[in-house]
Amino acid sequence: IDIQLYAHFYARLLKIESWIDPPVEIIPTVYRDLLTPTARLTICPIVDIQGLPDQSESQNNRTIGEIGIVTTGNLNWEYLQSQAIVKAFSHAIQLFRKTHPQ
Fold this sequence. Notes:
Blueprint (H helix, E strand, L loop, with lengths): L6 H8 L4 E2 L8 H4 L7 E9 L13 E10 L7 H21 L3
Antiparallel strand pairs: 1-2, 2-3
């Protein structure tokens, strides 16, 4: 995905903020193609955590990717749930890097 083509969409993710049902007109085509009239979209950044695990808001952190979740039905994502997803994936990346040094 060319980040420059979807700068408004990615600006939020680069600030380590999740999207819950972002406006359709700013969603990259790859996500838009997954949506149906009843679908809800949650996009969470994957963060490269630098330092201790409790420093998730550190200025040294940076977004290295995102995870998109498409749901249907009555499942309503909220901010706290999206933050849990961010932390889980970010800590998984951190653990992988510790156990697989370059």
